Amino acid sequence: MKDLSDISLWRFGANFIPSTAVNQLEMWQADSFDPVTIDRELGWGAAVGMQVMRVYLHDLLFEQDADGFIRRIEQYLTIADKYNIRTVFVFFDDCWNNEFALGKQPAPKPFGHNSGWVKSPGRQATGDLRQYPRLERYVKGVIQHFRGDKRILMWDLYNEPGNGDAGDHETLGQYQGSRSLGLLKAVFDWALSCDPTQPVTVGVWSWEPAMDELNQTALELSEVVSFHSYLAPEAHKERMDLMRFLAQGRPIVCTEYMARRRGSTFQGCLPMMQQANCTAINWGLVAGKTNTIYPWNWKASDGEPELYFHDVFRADGSALYADEVAFLKTFKRN
After folding, report:
1. Which pTM does this prediction carry?
2. Nearest to 23 by CA among 146, 113, 126
């Protein structure tokens, strides 16, 4: 039986990508990897008490240069550890753009929420068994290298399996749905065969009927039960209580929340998650090239929103909302 006492300790933190990167590829590729910005921005998170970051990887990075990719992950972990920050790494993702390539990444579209974010491995590869050997090498190669590394809190194997090309929660586009089931089952097999000391999880993010098989598999195979909830406090508590019931004694982690314009706020949601011992990881730390300060389905013609959507800091380190940063500091652990 895996020891889950460490992950049962309550923490809060953020989904992290440096403000200088538009997507996972730009964060990690050798010519755009930016440890100076990573160090600076993780320091801002630590200063308000954050002790966990959720960070996305990408299969093409391992295929291109496995050794270099591992070295850059090591470098990131060294920086995070300096600030007493643990990391949740994400392997696959069914969200956002299905067309992508290594090399120079596109500039962000003005006002476009996560306009440059890319899927991994992409819709075609997800259902192509011929691609699975290289995907298996990627997952096993990373986990085997870090399988006993205490700087990693857990492995999040697949973000929002079954999602559609739009990738947001208001214009979902064409669901992949159960077409992602084969890869979902496979990634659990690959990860668990490495016998990592860290637990594995895949989060429940949608209760649409198209997700039934995916949700059942994720809940059955996850060693820690995780979920997304961009809901206002009352509905968020109902979702959290449901996940605790479904967890049947396993720890629960909310790996995405906080969308101000939908009523999902730090002040409304964080205290109840602390009380319920549900580790809380909001979307976004520093506003930058991902443009996640803008709401889903936002357009340039909409102009600046009256209330920003995600993120905590501006790229100069100042707070988007000073009252939030002051509030977060009240949760700083000793």
Report:
1. 0.96
2. 113
- Which residues on neighbouring strands pair with residue 12, listed in sequence order? 280
- Measured distance CA(53)–CA(89) in Å, rounded: 8
Residue with tokens 């000073």: 322
Q: Per residue in 271-310, is it b (16+ CB within 10 Å) or e — as a string?
A: ebbeebebbbbbbbbbbbbbbbbbbbebeeeeeeeeebbb
Amino acid at 39: D
Q: Residues 264-289: pLDDT tens digits?
A: 999 999 999 999 999 999 999 999 99
Instruction: Using alpha carbons, select from 16, 42, 45, 20 the residue that is nearest to residue 33.
Output: 20
Q: Tell me the mean pLDDT in the region 147-164.
A: 96
Confidence tier at 173 by pLDDT (50, 70, 90):
low
277/190 Cα distance (integer angstroms): 29
Beta-bridge mates of residue 158: 92
Q: Structure tokens of 320? A: 């988007």
The helix or strand, by DSSP H or E, that contains position 200, with its residue range, turns out to be: strand 200-201
- β-bridge partners, 270: none
**Which residue has tokens 């995780």?**
226
State the Cα–Cα distance between residues 255 and 282, nearest whole angstrom.
Answer: 7
d(C-alpha 331, C-alpha 272), whole Å: 12
Instruction: Name the residue type at position 255.
Output: T
